[in-house]
What does this fold into?
Amino acid sequence: MNASTKPSKVVVIGGGIFGVSTAVHLARLGIRTLLINDGPLANGASGRSLAWLNSARKRSDAYHRLRLAGMDRYRTLAAGHPDAPWLRFDGGLTWDADDADNEIAEVFDYERDLGYHAQWVAPEKIAAVTPGVDASAVTPQGAIFNPGEGWVDLPSLIAMLAEEFRALGGEIVTDVERATVDIEGGRVRGVITADGKRRDADAVLLAAGGDVPAIVAEAGLHIDDATPVALLVRTKPIRHPLKAVLNTPRVAIRRTPAGGFALDSAWSEEEVGVKPDGSYEVRQSTLERLLREASKVLEGNPTLEIEDYRVGPKPIPGDGEPVFGELPSIPGYFVAFSHSGATLGLIAGELLADEIGTGRRHPLLAEFRPERFGASRR
It folds into this structure.
């Protein structure tokens, strides 16, 4: 986009954290913004995310810096909502399996060298650092406690941001069937919804989760896609002392605002079946085993009961790194496609809104442009 031209109207496609965050930041800049979604807000990946706020373990320097900026924005938000049950910074605890692939010592040194706050903890010392963990489940190599990590309940955050967006004059239209980005003369002209209604705009942000690569392909461009299935299980409320996010070999756990636990794991996601009609099949045995694995790592090994579960695509670009910014050769067409939606949600929305509003590319997004896939319009 032309850096000297502020768009008069922007359409955002997608009611997850990237879409809603960008929309509210655009509204704060005084830009008329319409957000459309194919169902209620947070009905996609944002509604089934563990939403662990972190930059733990190994990743590229650029990705680490962006995640740190993302965590910083959440800390600012938490300062303004100190009692919010949907945003907590009570640390994160992680350990690896007791096998040749255990990297705890190496990861600890790596994080310390980066200045990422990390503490190595022997199993018998964990109770003194963070409560609620069954020390007998921790492998002999010990665990890493990252005091600065936390979690967010994305549907709660999205609801709050949407309220502000509407108060600033933003418009939200839900239950809109799949929208097509309208391109004329080599640039974006708006969006056409399934009912044939055209909504003109100077710029469009596509933040439609796992559908982004397929929708971009309609414009003749390519984004590498490695999107798998996500399964998030939520338990009924239970009195328990756990506060930190747990990332263990067999299960990841965090609290929920209602007092239960949110659970996920790699193995349980691999057991989800896909039916011929595209719907998902989750076996009861998978759910029960995930509950048992969670109980094993929790102090007192409590009996856990399922409140509900959510299943669907987990957006992950082919190289694992985020995809943010304007598509090459199509002025006004922006995308947001990334696995780490929770950690990056606020900072990505801020930076994308600034780029859309000013035309200036932000250096924090320099390594995450869609053109890195060699995208060229056919």
Q: What stands out?
A: Residues 61-80 form the longest helix (20 residues). The chain is about 30% helix and 25% strand.
